[in-house]
Amino acid sequence: MRNMPLIFIDIETTGTRATRDRITEIAAFKVVNGHITDRWVSLINPGTSVPSHICQLTGIYDDMLIDAPSFYTIAPSLREWLGEDCLVAHNARFDASFLRNEFKRVGINYQPQLRCTLRISRRLMPELPKHNLRSLLAHFNIHQARQHRAEDDATALWQLWKVWQQQFDAASWQAALADEQRHRSLPAHLASEQLTGLPASPGVYLFYGHNRLPLYVGKSINLRSRVLGHFQRDHQDDKEMRLVQQIQHIEWEETPGDLSAQLREAELVKELMPIMNRQLRRQGHLKTWYWPTDQPCPTLVSGKAISQPQSGKLFGLFRSAKEAKAALRSIAETHQLCPQVLGIDKGTGRCFANQLGKCRGACCGQEPLESHSQRAQEALASFQVNTWPWPGRIIIREKSRKNGPTSHHVIDHWCYLGSATTKQRALGLKGVAAKFDVDTYRILNRFLREPERHNLTISPL
């Protein structure tokens, strides 16, 4: 390690999104055999204004950057200066992600080796409550002239590195470095031991942040592959970067198969409301278009109608009446249907759309109502909500692996009532009240189209 050149680096940026925000300052010190042999320090003109809250944090303002070089200008010489040497940074994947994206914009490939002092700190001193740079400098009484300025942060980081080498014996130091490299793809705040036993089987996983704040719930048919995959894409996906920066704890649950995993994921998202799950959260009072068999137009009803026997057809699931009407109006315009006959517009006689040549005249006898209804239902066919094909409740037996667990899911008119490991226990769920959920409907609809392909056996109750 003493003969390997290290580059202690810090960057300041216009924000936290590596794919969109830009670098405003770079400071890097090249260290060989314990001595700084070269420096690279420069403000960078990001080509955009710096947000006010970032200015207050860093002390870097737009007027300071007007005459600074752009990254495009310095990229070739900086890339040559960096060479293939290892970068040392606090939360190194953050700095490296910005550098990789800035170089990528000018057509230069850069994939540096990294040493993350945040991960090293967690391995050297797991008892410390905080491992951010400011807390570590205070713990070791290391002076820092300014916070969130690249040169001062890089200098402080180099001082911290030297103190660690003095404070810890060679065996502990080398063990920490080796462990950091062994788990270099993991989030900096996540202890590697938490991944012990993570299986390559179906299930759900939960990411938590500080104070066990739920960050994200996901599912996969291969938990290990999916979880580790989150940690590989942070430099190219802003959501993954935000997630990786905050993860401090992981939990997971194995399931008998993909259906179990998807049902459990939907259940946990609604229960925990993780801050980074946009889908599968509670969707309020849904609406759907109900078209009775003897009527010329549909009626807007509650989405709960899907879990009840109907004599007509249901089309679409919408978050609001406004969204439902907008969808029906768009279909009417596309297929020259009459908005007046469909009940979207009020009035009698020839409608305004017909006067514009956008309606074939069902409103004024130019088109028979039967023909109009047929065309309208054909146009809505892709939105049709499947009716429940069984007379009552069913049990779905799921077993995707030969020696894996089995689950029995009880479903009633697209409503998920619960699961049990045996059919006998599942029968005990018969008294559970049915509650319709659109995500459950969509999940079940996909799986029940081809039950054999998903290793599902269906038994009516």
Automatic annotation (TrEMBL):
PROSITE patterns: GIY_YIG (PS50164)
Residue ranges constituting the GIY-YIG domain according to the UniProt record: 200-278
SUPFAM superfamilies documented for this protein: GIY-YIG endonuclease, Ribonuclease H-like
Enzyme Commission number(s) from the entry: 2.7.7.7
Keywords for the protein's UniProt record, in alphabetical order: DNA damage, DNA excision, DNA repair, Excision nuclease, Exonuclease, Hydrolase, Nuclease, SOS response
Matches recorded under Pfam families: GIY-YIG, RNase_T
Catalytic activity: DNA(n) + a 2'-deoxyribonucleoside 5'-triphosphate = DNA(n+1) + diphosphate
PANTHER family (alphabetical): EXCINUCLEASE CHO (PTHR30562:SF10), UVRC/OXIDOREDUCTASE (PTHR30562)
Name under which the protein is recorded: Excinuclease cho
Organism: Halomonas qaidamensis
